[in-house]
Specification:
With 108 residues, the chain is of the alpha/beta class. The chain has four helices and five strands; from the N terminus they run E-H-E-H-E-E-H-H-E. Strand 2, helix 2 and strand 3 form a beta-alpha-beta unit. The mean pLDDT is 86.
């Protein structure tokens, strides 16, 4: 969904992989983390260590689920809310060009 909105996304399927991708690609513009991901706090900490002002968004099935020091905690059931937040934080890539995001997802 984020890719179809023209954001450039680098996806990881574990906290370890996400942390490594943040190290390899330090110029990402933001990070989206699934709160239910084991070790999500490790990812948010790595993102903030890389760049303290990097926007970190945690997605969760429940708004009560939090992930480390994420700047924003939103429901994964509201995709339009995520896109609106990304556009407000990073600009609209449909108008300004590609924006790079690191994304960590639950692995099956």
């Amino acid at each position: 969904m984020i890719e179809t909105a023209k954001f450039n996304v680098i996806t990881a399927y574990s906290a370890e992989e996400a942390t490594e991708l943040l190290r390899l690609f330090p110029k990402v513009d933001g990070a989206v983390v699934v709160s239910e991901l084991k070790g999500c706090e490790k990812v948010t900490d790595a993102a903030k260590k890389l760049n303290a002002s990097l926007p970190v968004i945690a997605l969760s099935a429940s708004r009560h689920q939090r992930c480390g020091n994420a700047d924003h905690n939103i429901s994964s059931h509201e995709p339009e809310e995520l896109l609106n937040l990304l556009r407000s934080l990073l600009g609209d890539p449909r108008k300004t060009g590609m924006t790079s995001l690191a994304s960590s997802a639950l692995s099956e």
